[in-house]
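Batch manifest line 249
LIGAND: magnesium ion
JOB: complex structure
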Amino acid sequence: MKPFLFVTDLDHTLVGDDQALIELNQHLSEHRQEYGTKIVYATGRSPVLYQELQVEKNLIQPDALVLSVGTEIYFDGTDVPDADWSEILSPGWSRDSVLSITSKYSELILQPDSEQRSFKVSFFLQQAAAEDILPQLEAELLKYKLNIKLIYSSGIDLDIVPLSSDKGQAMQFLRQKWKFAAQQTVVCGDSGNDIALFAVGNERGIIVGNARKELLEWHDEYPADHRYLAKDFCAGGIIEGLKYFGFLE
Ligand code: GLC
Ligand code: MG
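JOB STATUS: finished
ARTIFACT:
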C-alpha cells in the first residue's frame, strides 16, 4: 500500500452518516500512521463554522485545512492562513468593488458576517432567481474587469471569490507541495462548490450517492473513468469509492 492524498468536502460528504464516519476515520488514521497518507478537508465553511463542526462531529485532525471554498489554507492546526496561497489570490481582487456591484441586486442576501472573508463574499440566492441573476451578475462583474468567479451551491449559496481560487486549485497547490501524483490523490464531494475538485485535473474522484443535482448534471455532461459515482451516502460512499480505486482493501 502506498500513501495517498485524501481531500474531502465536509457537509453531506464526510459528515452526514455518523456510523460510517467512525469507520472511515479508523481507516484513514491507520493509513496515515502506517503509510504517510495525508488528510485534507476542503469546505466552504469559515474557521468559526469549521470549529463548530469539528467539535460536534469529533473530526480527526487534518494535515491541512482548505476553508472558505478554497480561499484559505491552514497547515498543522495553525490559525493563520498560508501566506503563499494568499499571495496567489491577491492580484486583481477587490472586495469593495464586488460589494458595490452586488448591492444593486435585491435578490442577493448577504450571508452572516462570519462567512464574509478576505477573499470571499457570500450571499444567499434562491434557486428560482439564480438562473436569471447569475449570468447578468457575472457579465457585470467581468465588465469591470474584476478577476472573479461565481460559485453556486445547493440551490442557495453564492460565493464570489478570486479567479485563481476554488477548492480544486487549493487542492492542486497542496498536491504539488507534497508531491503526490494525480493517480495517488482522491477528492470527494457532493455539491456545486466541489465541481472544481473534480474538474481541475485527473485526480481520482468520488461523488457520494447523495450528491446534489448541480454536481450530478455536471458529471453527466463530463463523465470520466477516473471519477466514481458511489451508491452509498456520505462517508459510506467514500469508503465504497476508496475500495473501488484500490486505496483501501
Ligand atoms: C458553507 C459556507 C458558506 C458558503 C457555502 C458554499 O456553507 O459557510 O459561506 O456559501 O459553504 O460554499
Ligand atoms: Mg458539501
